[in-house]
Design a protein that fits this description.
alpha+beta; binds adenosine-5'-triphosphate; Transferase(Phosphotransferase), domain 1; five-stranded antiparallel beta sheet; Hepatocyte Growth Factor; 3 domains; binds 2-acetamido-2-deoxy-beta-D-glucopyranose; Phosphorylase Kinase, domain 1; 17 strands; single chain; about 40% helix
């Protein structure tokens, strides 16, 4: 069966790509030359201009070459595509077809991608909303589509450092826009290839035909994404352990997926909290343009050095001459230094601290791989959900409380606790009434607590604690526990 990994096929595609970019750029520079030509310029200026153009062209080709390996599907994915309705089984070279379609779409925006639900038409007439974030390369804006669907639109940041630096180097606004747009195109390809609950969902994309809309450069690229909120580390540091654990667990699940993704082992070269957003409390990777699917070649272990500001690691050079698991290990150590150290140990449930400490040590020393790390996280989740880590709570605590079902309190006298799910009073996630009773008994101000029907992502109950209340109201979904010693 013919495969896209076929070097001949890839070479043909590459030749096609490279020649087409050169031709289109040549035509473009001729056009630009015709408009802005300065006939009084000397030969030296012409030469400088020509060398600048060819350097820009080299960079454009470089960026295109980076995308090619991402376009070719691997075995398992091909099978999936073969079985999908778009690619009939008898269509032997469907994956080559698929890649050509995708490539055409990416390069000239000629056709709508089969995989996306939204496209340029979806954006007609929508009002630009507020800026959600921006970086060196990209600008992200919130818009609301019909039927109240909020989405995030990602563009090239024309005021960003990437664009600024390119303009300095090449002084070609159109060429630079195209060059910088390549990072966004690469990201779109990666988002199409890498689908995971902890990667931002690509809802669609829009690529204008480079021949049209030339007013602002033409060929503009927009990624249409699920909308999230920038990760606020300071805010996260103040949130309950369960929420911080959720972020770390999401990250570990993501890294596990990336270690054996459809594209191979993916390394995140620029790994920082600002590459992630939260969607309803769930961590999602949004900045993928600096992802790498290559592991460096090596001759000895010394070629496989992983450097961090306070720590270096030497990884084994495999028999086939690549630094095995380098991407995976770099991702994992970055997860440790940017996320786990800040989010994980602080206020971990007492029954789980030994497991958390173990994770901190094994990832901090890179002794565990991502599989083992994921196992440890899932084990903690299981214990936490089942309440097994609470097995040393004396069941008699609950006898110190009188329960009233079907009522809620009103006119509460609140007291603060930290961290709390509510800014007004003390609200905590508990596994059971017993755990809530133990917490209330440990707070001297606490005279009663209630459990409502509200639960957290782990299924824990939200319990509100208070030092008093004025009266009771009927409420079928609530129960109130009065601390007996405080009943007068
Ligand atoms: N889907 C989204 N919803 C909400 N905000 C988002 C979304 N995607 C990105 N952002 C915000 O926009 C910022 C810029 O996006 P992105 O990181 O992709 O751009 P960048 O130019 O590559 O940034 P950097 O310079 O950090 O590498 C992000 O830091 C994030 O805060
Ligand atoms: C043409 O070149 C001269 C001398 O280098 C310069 O002063 C002038 O501004 C240039 N004109 C344009 C339109 O670039
Ligand atoms: C890491 O390696 C670099 C280069 O070999 C060296 O300069 C640096 O001091 C090392 N850092 C640590 C913390 O060992
Ligand atoms: C891991 O544990 C060892 C032994 O207790 C200790 O020396 C080391 O500093 C710990 N490393 C980290 C990253 O916590
Ligand atoms: C991780 O587990 C997968 C199977 O789930 C296996 O294919 C892979 O080789 C494992 N990786 C390591 C580094 O053990």
């Amino acid at each position: 069966m013919p495969v896209m990994g076929n070097p001949l096929c890839a070479a043909a595609l590459l030749a096609f790509v490279v020649s087409s970019v050169s031709v289109s750029l040549l035509i473009r520079s001729l056009q630009l030359g015709a408009h802005k030509g300065n006939v009084t310029n000397g030969a030296a200026d012409d030469q400088e201009l020509a060398s600048r153009r060819s350097a820009l062209m080299d960079q454009l080709n470089q960026r295109r070459k980076e995308i090619i390996p991402l376009l070719s599907a691997r075995g398992s994915e091909k099978k999936l595509l073969a079985e999908s309705r778009y690619f009939p089984q008898q269509y032997q070279s469907f994956s080559a077809m698929f890649d050509y379609n995708l490539w055409n779409e990416i390069t000239d925006g000629s056709r709508r991608m089969l995989m996306d639900e939204l496209d340029c038409d979806s954006l007609v007439g929508v009002q630009t909303g507020n800026v959600l974030g921006s970086g060196y390369t990209k600008l992200v804006v919130k818009v609301v589509l019909p039927e109240d669907q909020p989405v995030a639109l990602k563009f090239v940041n024309e005021q960003g450092n990437d664009m600024e630096k390119c303009l300095e180097d090449f002084r070609d606004p159109r060429g630079c826009l195209e060059l910088v747009a390549y990072k966004l195109k690469k990201e779109i390809v990666l988002l199409q290839r890498l689908k995971h609950p902890n990667i931002i969902k690509l809802r669609g994309h829009c690529m204008e035909d480079p021949g049209h809309g030339s007013e602002r450069g033409g060929g503009r690229v927009t990624a249409i994404l699920e909308q999230g909120y920038p990760l606020q580390m300071i805010q996260l540091l103040q949130s309950p352990w369960e929420e911080r654990f959720r972020v770390c667990l999401g990250l570990v699940r993501l890294l596990h997926f990336l270690s054996r993704s459809p594209l191979g082992s993916v390394g995140l070269l620029d790994f920082q909290p600002r590459q992630f957003v939260l969607v309803a409390g769930e961590l999602k990777l949004t900045d993928l343009d600096d992802a790498s699917v290559e592991e460096p070649a090596c001759r000895t272990d010394r070629d496989c050095l992983l450097q961090f500001p306070h720590r270096n690691f030497t990884l084994p050079c495999s028999g086939t001459g690549v630094c095995r698991d380098l991407n995976q290990k770099r991702n994992l150590y970055n997860a440790y230094r940017y996320f786990f150290t800040y989010l994980l140990p602080h206020q971990a449930p007492p029954g789980l601290t030994h497991l958390v400490d173990h994770i901190m040590n094994s990832t901090g020393e890179l002794r565990a791989d991502i599989n083992q790390t994921l196992d440890s996280f899932e084990q903690i989740l299981l214990l936490y959900k089942s309440g097994l880590h609470l097995d040393n709570l004396p069941p008699s605590i609950i006898t110190g409380y009188t329960v009233m079902r079907g009522v809620a309190t009103a006119g509460d006298l609140q007291y603060p606790c930290w961290p709390s799910y509510s800014q007004q009073g003390c609200v905590k996630a508990v596994h059971s009434a017993l755990e809530a009773a133990a917490l209330c008994s440990a707070h001297s101000q606490c005279t009663s607590f209630s459990l409502s029907g509200h639960t957290t992502w782990t299924g824990h109950l939200l319990a509100s604690f208070r030092s008093g209340f004025s009266h009771l109201l009927p409420d079928g979904s609530s129960e109130v526990y009065l601390r007996k010693a405080s009943v007068v």
